[in-house]
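To the wet lab folks,

You asked to see what we're planning to order before we commit. Fair enough. Below is the target structure as tokens, and below that is the sequence we designed to fit it. If anything looks off to you, flag it before the synthesis order goes out.
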């Protein structure tokens, strides 16, 4: 268990999160965290015995923040008149968070550097997105197969476009594809 002061610990983790997002997991060193946080190396190591534990703390904090945001998101979703709009809203909301996108970049591109435990934290984060998508399907009573296909479309459109820095599919095209799936499987 780390021994450092909670405020210093959080400050170090916040600085590290920024560095991880800028340079990736492998490209971020403890020395960079020390310089950017303006603390000594022993201070960092007394709070985080390894870079892996530092990244794990960043993920844990991100999960907690995302869970806290979900109640507000549920309220916002109730204002959408149909399933398609709600799904698009979730995809956009999820992908607009730069730290979540950073987590995806690291866990997709640098997973070989991460422990199984840290991978489970990422799966927990990604599971929150799955939960939100599932609650939308339940609320609009969408058939499971249709919903799974649509989740794949929305994930691909928002996550992959955001991660690759492209915009390969317009919102209108995505809406049309979702409607095609709904029409085909919801007969």
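Sequence we intend to order:
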């Amino acid at each position: 268990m780390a021994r450092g002061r909670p405020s210093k610990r959080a400050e170090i983790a916040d600085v590290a999160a920024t560095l991880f997002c800028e340079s990736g997991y492998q490209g971020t060193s403890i020395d960079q965290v020390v310089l950017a946080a303006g603390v000594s190396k022993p201070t960092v190591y007394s709070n985080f015995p390894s870079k892996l534990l530092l990244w794990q703390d960043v993920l844990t904090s991100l999960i907690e923040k995302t869970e806290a945001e979900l109640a507000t998101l549920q309220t916002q979703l109730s204002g959408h008149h149909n399933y398609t709009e709600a799904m698009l809203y979730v995809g956009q909301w999820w992908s607009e968070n730069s730290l979540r996108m950073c987590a995806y970049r690291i866990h997709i591109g640098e997973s070989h550097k991460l422990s199984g435990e840290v991978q489970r934290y990422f799966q927990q984060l990604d599971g929150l997105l799955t939960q939100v998508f599932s609650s939308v399907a339940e609320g609009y009573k969408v058939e499971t197969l249709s919903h799974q296909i649509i989740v794949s479309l929305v994930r691909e459109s928002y996550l992959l476009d955001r991660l690759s820095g492209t915009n390969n599919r317009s919102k209108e095209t995505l809406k049309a594809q979702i409607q095609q799936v709904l029409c085909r499987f919801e007969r």
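Structural context that might help your review: The first helix runs from residue 6 to 23. The chain has nine helices and no strands.

Thanks,
Computational group
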